[in-house]
Amino acid sequence: MFNKFSLKYLFVLLQVLLLAESTHAQYHAAVGARAGKFGSGLTMKYFFSPDNATGFELMILKTKIANGGWWIAPFYEHQVPFRTPLIQLPLDFILGGGMHIGYYHDKYYKVVDGDPVYYADNIITVGADLLVALEYLVPIKSLPFAVGVEAEPFYEFVNKGPEFLEFGITLKYVFNTD
């Protein structure tokens, strides 16, 4: 079932995972890129407290909804280590709440009875957002990066749009690792 090469590969992989677990460190601030289902752009994070449990994240995104537009989304977040016996990776679980303000030059619409109903040009949207994410901090000091996977359900209460759920991945450069 296992040949000599696959057993060596498995042993090396286990060593790397154990090293990653033992060298996991938090960070105080990060800046990076986000690629999403609808919105891609810049993301910035700053932790308020020294224990790195609570913080603020700001996303500035170019959106693909309609003919394209811009989103600014601030979040208040709580980030905690996510440890299970089955997954031996230094993952953090992130839960946050916030809002977004969007701007669309033209062709922004809502769906009524399955058909698009277009708004006037130069429309502003406002909505409430929830952020649920997993983040992996690369455990190598010379590679100060964090990689994340996010789900962001949202509800627009000013100029409701056609979508309500965003997914994304992030790559952030981290500052002040312990």
Describe the protein in words:
This protein is mostly beta strands. It is built from one helix and ten strands, in the order H-E-E-E-E-E-E-E-E-E-E. The strands form two sheets. An eight-stranded antiparallel β-barrel has the order 1-2-3-4-5-8-9-10.
Tally of individual helices: 1
Beta-strand portion reads over 45%
Strand order across the largest sheet: 1-2-3-4-5-8-9-10
Shape: elongated
User: Gyration radius, to the nearest Å?
Assistant: 20 Å
Write the H/E string, N to C. Answer: HEEEEEEEEEE
Could you tell me the number of beta strands? 10
Class derived from helix and strand content: mainly beta
First-to-last CA distance: 42 Å
Looking at how many chains there are and whether they match, the oligomeric state comes to: single chain
Largest sheet: 8 strands, antiparallel, barrel
Give a nutshell description of this structure:
11% of the residues lie in helices and 58% in strands. With 178 residues, it is mainly beta. Strands 1-2-3-4-5-8-9-10 form an eight-stranded antiparallel β-barrel. It has a two-stranded antiparallel sheet with strand order 6-7.
